[in-house]
Design a protein that fits this description.
4-stranded antiparallel beta sheet; Outer membrane efflux proteins (OEP); single chain; alpha+beta
Length: 453
């Protein structure tokens, strides 16, 4: 018995060595995030770290945002992301606790009657927890690593959402400018039509057509202005900005279309090797398998406590000894736990296979969407917009030669603006599709991003 108590004492000393890491496991999260976004992220666990992050946020807001600076700002300032990072602290606490002995329990009994007093005392230690410390630590280590992957997955998701929201907000702001030009042309055309009707040089039907177009242009501009507010506010939420920070500036126009499209090599294999949700699924399955290893040896012994006990009774000498408490498997032999663990493991295996199959499909789909968006934006840039410009130049020459009316010239001007808005929308779709492709290759499912609130 003395040897058992000595072993328990020695184990308690060793278990006491389990402690928290300096970075709380965030170093791995930061590395995984930077590899996939090109930007750093920070977990603000102290007032000094929070102040440093806010200083950098203020610096970024002094200039018009770019896609890269918007992502950096979100990774530093997004409140939901900071909340998800706290899961690391929870997981590490469980890991440290798994490496320490369970607290001993003390039992005390006091009986009085018939002129006698009987006192029972005992101190119990959970021996089973001592025997399973290595396995328990291994399981919690796996869960801690899963928490790191989940945090990186959230960071990459926020980064991708922010890039898409940035491009959408800039495009919406740019479209307002063009729709305003359309309305100005419609206003001028409607006013001119009214004057010509008063002079008797224009019929009522032609005037009504100009007024109808003016009404459409007015409603179109109103919708565009509201949509610009919607997209800007969506970006604001991702950046977690408030107060004076709401005056942040966006560029006047979207980035130009790249000269050549992206051509990823071995795209499907890249997704299998680097995509976070695929890697996380694999590690989850591995952790489940390790937990099965913990379940098997403890299947028949659920509770085993051992400890020191003594009893004293008035008028008698104190008697000492030890006490063992064992739960007997009379009704549940552990088969239900084993069956449940096996089902959980097979569930994890099949979900991992599903994620891998979906990842390959999403890479192919995302690349198709990307090339379609790139080719369409290139078509607008190289064919549609230049063609409309040449038509406008010819119409201007015809107007100067008095071959067409001012109304035809204004109508052509409106058509040219609409072709430009079509290019802006195509360019926006290109940058969104490019973000989805990169996310599908190394981050997570683009469809998961679309489902985010």
């Amino acid at each position: 018995m003395n040897q058992t108590l000595l072993a328990i004492a020695a184990a308690s000393v060793l278990a006491g060595c389990a402690s928290f890491s300096e970075d709380g496991g965030f170093g791995n999260v930061a590395t995984l995030t930077k590899e996939r976004t090109g930007q750093t992220t920070a977990w603000q666990r102290s007032p000094a770290e929070a102040d440093a992050a806010q200083t950098r946020v203020s610096e970024l807001l002094k200039q018009a945002l770019t896609a890269e600076s918007a992502v950096e700002l979100a990774l530093l300032n997004n409140r939901g992301l900071q909340a998800s990072y706290s899961e690391l602290g929870i997981a590490e606490s469980d890991l440290v606790r798994a490496g320490r002995l369970s607290n001993p329990s003390f039992r005390f009994g006091h009986l009085r009657g018939g002129g006698m007093v009987e006192i029972d005392r005992s101190v119990l230690f959970n021996v089973l927890s001592l025997l399973t410390i290595p396995a328990a630590r291994q399981v919690e280590q796996g869960r801690f690593e899963q928490a790191q992957w989940h945090a990186a997955l959230d960071a990459v998701g926020v980064a991708a959402d922010t890039r898409k929201a940035f491009f959408t907000a800039v495009a919406a702001q740019e479209l307002v400018t063009y729709y305003r030009q359309v309305k100005e042309a419609a206003d001028a055309s409607s006013e001119l039509a009214g004057r010509m009707v008063q002079a008797g040089n224009f019929n009522a039907l032609a005037q009504l057509r100009e007024q109808a177009f003016q009404a459409d242009a007015t409603s179109q501009l109103a919708r565009a202005q509201h949509q610009s507010v919607v997209e800007r506010e969506r970006l604001t939420r991702l950046l977690s900005l408030s107060g004076n920070q709401l005056a942040f500036a966006l560029p006047d126009r979207l980035p130009d279309l790249p000269k050549l499209p992206t051509e990823p090599k071995d795209a499907e294999q890249t997704a299998m090797d680097k995509r976070l949700d695929v890697l996380l699924a694999r590690r989850t399955t591995e952790a489940t398998a390790k937990s099965l290893g913990l379940t098997s040896p403890t299947r028949f012994v659920n509770v085993l406590n051992v400890g020191y006990a003594n009893k004293s009774q008035s008028g008698d000498t104190r008697r000492s000894g030890y006490e063992v408490e064992l739960e007997l498997p009379l009704f549940d032999f552990g088969s239900t736990r084993a069956a449940r663990a096996q089902a959980i493991y097979m569930q994890s295996v099949n979900r991992t296979a599903e994620i891998a199959i979906n990842a390959r499909s999403e890479v192919r789909e995302s690349y198709s969407a990307y090339r379609t968006a790139y080719d369409l934006a290139k078509h607008y840039r190289d064919e549609v917009v230049p063609l409309r410009k040449r038509i406008s130049q010819e119409n201007l020459l015809r107007y100067n030669g008095m071959l067409i009316s001012v109304f035809e010239l204004l109508a052509d001007s409106r058509d040219q603006v609409m072709s430009v808005t079509g290019y802006v929308e195509a360019l926006r779709e290109h940058w969104i599709a490019e973000t989805d492709l990169q996310t599908a290759l190394t981050g997570r499912s683009p469809n998961a991003l679309k489902d985010r609130p």
